[in-house]
Amino acid sequence: MRPYLFAISAFAVVALPVATQAKPDLTSRAAIDAAVAAPTRTPANEARDQYRHPAETLAFFGIKPGDKIVELWPFGGWYTEILTPYVNAGGGRLTVASPAGKYDDMIAKKLATDLATYGKVIRARFPSTPTEPKIAPNSVDAVLTFRNIHNWMGKPGAAETAFQEIFTMLKPGGILGVEDHRLPENMDIAREAASGYLKVSTVRALAAKAGFQFAGASEINANPRDTHDYPKGVWTLPPSFAEGDADRARFAAIGESDRMTLRFIKPRK
């Protein structure tokens, strides 16, 4: 175990069975599709593929199965269910990085459900603390964050610090993949404070300040039915349904939120 990662004894490495079939072409989209179709995924998570488009999203980010990947704040492990078989098949490494407390507890519970699948997943802290070291500088190929940046905006300076820490842990040429709830550029930026939505320009500014180069955007996770103007913010829509049964059918028909999907690169020296 490397010194900058946190050894969790409950999650000992479990030997995986040796494949008897020919090794697949891990440079193709087929590797991503196979991970999305993994039998270890839960049906409730698979049902959300129609909104989250995981295969298209991961293909856009340009990650490879052999990469050392960090997934930030995975919560209950929706994407962890896909990324784990992806790196297991290609000899890569997945680290899930959470703050101490309930978010770390959620992913710990997920990993404990199936050690045969998740035994090689590493747990780490993000953001780091004085007593819990950072992931080593220039040590990972890709960092992925799904619907997390809006959570970092509530504390002054937290988002800036997060982006700088991400930049530091990535190798030169490494990828930062971002998906988050999107606030249209023509709407009042004050809505970012409590709605859960962020402007693309806000995220791009945070990334640029940390030193990233913008490498492209995709409309894979766009939802033109989302009006972005609900009193209870993005949590009004599925899967949260913050209004309970009030207008539930209408919000269900809208679907999950309109989301930005962005790719950034750490420049090579």
From TrEMBL:
Answer whether the UniProt record assigns the keyword Signal to this protein.
Answer: yes
Q: Where is the signal peptide?
A: 1-22
In the record, what terms sit under GO molecular function? Answer: methyltransferase activity
InterPro entries given for it? S-AdoMet-dep_MeTrfase_Alr7345 (IPR016980), SAM-dependent_MTases_sf (IPR029063)
Q: Which UniProt keywords apply?
A: Methyltransferase, Signal, Transferase
Biological process terms from the Gene Ontology for this record are:
methylation
| Protein's name according to its UniProt entry | Methyltransferase
